[in-house]
Amino acid sequence: MLTGGSVLAAQGLTLGTRLRDLSLSLEPGLLVAVVGPNGAGKSTLLQVLAGLLPAQGRIQWNGRELARIPFLERGRAMAWLGQESQAEFAFPVHEVVAQGRHAWGDDGRGVEAALAALDIGHLRDRPITQLSGGERRRVFLARALATGAPLQLWDEPTASLDVRHGLEVLKLAKGLTTGGATLLVSLHDLRTAFCFDRVLVLDQGALVGFGPPEQVLTPELIHAVFRVQARMAESLILELPS
Amino acid sequence: MKGRTFGAMAALSLLLLAAVLASLALGDLNLKPMEVLRALAGHGDDLARTVVWDIRLPRTLVGIAVGAGLAASGVAMQAFFRNALASPGLLGVSAGGALGAVAALTLGGAAVSIWTVPGASILGAFLATGAVVLLARRGASPEHLLLSGVALNAIFGAGTSFLLALSAGQFQVSGQILFWLMGGIENRTWEHVWIGLPPILLGCALMLPLGRPMNLLSLGEPSAQSLGVDVKRLRWQLIGLSTILTALATAVGGVVGFVGLVVPHLLRLAFGPDHRRLLPLSMLGGASLVLLCDLPTRFLPGGVRLGVMTALLGGPFLLWMLRRRPC
Questions:
Q1: Which of A30, A218, A230, B225 has its CB surrounded by the most CB atoms within 10 Å?
Q2: Is residue A237 part of a domain?
Q3: pLDDT above 90 (res B140)
Q4: Structural domain span for residue A75
Q5: Are B229 and A95 in contact (CB < 8 Å)?
Q6: Does the pLDDT of residue B118 top 90, yes or no?
Q7: Which of B227, B231, B267 best probes binding to A when mutated, by most A CB atoms within 10 angstroms?
Q8: B171-194 pLDDT tens trace
Q9: Helical residues (DSSP H) of chain B, grouped into ranges
Q10: B82 inside 8 A of chain A by CB
C-alpha cells in the first residue's frame, strides 16, 4: 500500500477502537472528503495523519516516514485545522495568521494573501477573543493557508460558517488542489462531498469506502453507514455568484 | 508596535531604576540619591557605606531576583495552562518550598547556618517539582496537572499547618515561621544574593527565547505542534524553568503571593499578549513591584510584610479582573 508516488500514505493505522487497521494512499492534487457518523474516527484519523496523535502503523509523507521528519519540517509540509477555535489570549488577527509562518522563520510571506482569501482583511487588528465563532474559524483557516503547506488536513472547516463563507472555503480548497496541494477535509454534509475528487467513508474506526463520490456514496452504503434512506432528487442549489 | 515595545521597555527600566534607588536610599537612615551613589562607589561616610553595601544592596538584589523570577514563572504558567489566572504557586512548588523551610525552622535549622532554611526550602520545592514531573512524564494534560497541583498544595499546606501548630509554644520559632510564610526580603545577606540572583537571572535568560513558541502554545497544543513547535520539549522547558524560578524565589524571599499572577496579567492588558514582549516586561515589572512593595514594610508596623503588601495589592486586583471577565 505504501507507494512512492503518493503524497500521503498510511498502512495498518490502529488506535484502540477509534481506528481499526486503516490503510490509504493519496496522489498529489486531490480534494478528499472524510465522512462518517459521529464517533466514526474522522477527527482521530486527521490527527493521526498529521502526527499529532500516536497510533500503531506506518505513515509516510512524500515517501518519508513521518516519525523521522523533524517538527519544523512538518510545519512546512503539512497544515492541520482542528475543530476547536477557542482563544484565551487577545492576539490580533494578523499575528495569529502570521503564526502560520513559524516553520519558515516568521518570514510573513503569504499572510496578507491568506487574510484576503478568507475575507478577514478588515478584522486584521481586532483581538481574536472578540470575534464570533465563524470569524475565528476563518482566522485559523487563514493561518493554515499561510503555511503554504502542500498537505492540508481540515477538520470540519465549514461547521460554523455562513452559507457564503462555507462555499468560498470549498472554492478555496479546490483552488489549492489545482496548485498541486492535497486536502483532506472532514464533513457532515454528504451533498457537499459530491463536489470533491474523492470521498473516504469511515464507520466505527474502519475505512468502508474510498473513491470518486458518485461511485462510493451509493444509497446502499449511506444506509449501511448512516442508517438513513438516500435518494436523488432536485433540491435548492446554493452557488457563489459567477 | 516596535516603538511602543521600546517605549514600554524604557519606561519599566526607568521604574526599576527608580525602585532600586529608593530601595537603597530609604529606611531608618534616609540617604539622598547622591549619597547612595557615593556609597556604592565606595566613598562617603562609613555608616552610609555599611548600610548600602551590607544591608540594602543585598535586600534590593534579592528583591529583584524574587520579583523577576516569580513574574517570569507566572508568564510561563499562564501560557502553559492557556489561562490568564494561572500563577507560579499553582503546581504546589511554593507550598513545597514553604514546607521545607518551615520544617527546617521547626528543627532549629535557622541557628545552624544561614544556608539551612533556603536549602531546605529548595529541597521542598524540588520534591514538589519531582512530583509534578512524575505526573507530567505520564503525559498528563494541563487540566490533570492543574488538579494535581491543587492536591499537592493541600498536602504541603497540611504539613505546614501541622508544624506550625507543633511549634505554637515556642514563640521564637513560631514567630520565625509566620514571618517566613508572609514573605519578606529584610535582613538578607550576600549569601542569599548568591543563592538567588545568578540562577534566577540565568533561568530568566533561558526563558526569553521561548516567547515565540509560547505564543503558538497559548492558542492550543496540537495546533502549535502542527505549525512546527516541539510541544513536548517546550512543555518540559516551561514546567522546568518556572518551577526552578519559583523554588529559588521562595527560598530567598519566603512565600510572596500575587506577583506571578498580577504582573503578567496587568502588562498583558496594557501591551498585548505577545510573549516576546511580555516576558522581558514582566521581569522588569515584577522586580519593580517587589521593591516598591518592600518600601512601606520598612516604615509600617512589623506585621506589614512583603507578602502582605503584594497580597493587599493583588487581592483587590484579582477581584477587579473577575468583575471584568465574567466566569
A1: B225
A2: no
A3: no
A4: 8-217
A5: no
A6: no
A7: B227
A8: 888 888 888 888 899 889 999 999
A9: 2-25, 33-40, 46-50, 57-81, 93-106, 109-112, 116-137, 142-166, 171-181, 190-207, 211-217, 221-226, 231-253, 259-271, 275-297, 306-324
A10: yes
CATH, domain B2-324, list 1.10.3470.10, 2.30.30.220, 2.40.110.10, 3.40.50.1370:
1.10.3470.10
ipTM: 0.92
A131 in a structural domain: yes
Is residue A83, in this structure, part of any structural domain at all?
yes
Pick from B222, B228, B273: which is nearest to A72 by CB?
Answer: B228
A88:B83 CB<8 A: yes
* Cell numbers 471584568: residue: B324
Q: What pLDDT score does A1 carry? A: 44
What's A56's domain CATH number? 3.40.50.300
Which pLDDT tens digit goes with each residue over A10-31? 999 999 999 999 999 999 999 9
CB contact under 8 A, A80 and B222: yes
The angle, 0 to 180 degrees and rounded to 10, between the axes of the packed helices B142-166 and B93-106 is 20
Q: What's the 3-state SS for B58-71?
A: HHHHHHHHHHHHHH
B139 touches chain A (CB under 8 A): no
CA gap B278, B282 in Å, rounded: 6
Residue of A47, A89, A100 lying closest to B227 (CB–CB) = A100
Closest residue in B to A129 (Cα–Cα): B219
Q: Residue ranges per domain, chain B?
A: 2-324
- pLDDT for res B1: 59
Report the pLDDT averaged over residues B104-115.
82
Query: Cell match 527546617: residue?
Result: B104
CB distance A50–B228 less than 8 Å? no
CA-nearest residue of chain B to A97? B216
Average pLDDT over residues A142-147: 97
Q: Band of the pLDDT at B241, cuts 50, 70, 90? A: very high
**How many distinct structural domains can be found in chain A?**
1
Which run of H or E residues covers position A136?
A: helix A133-146
pTM for the whole thing?
A: 0.90
Residue A232 lies in a domain: no
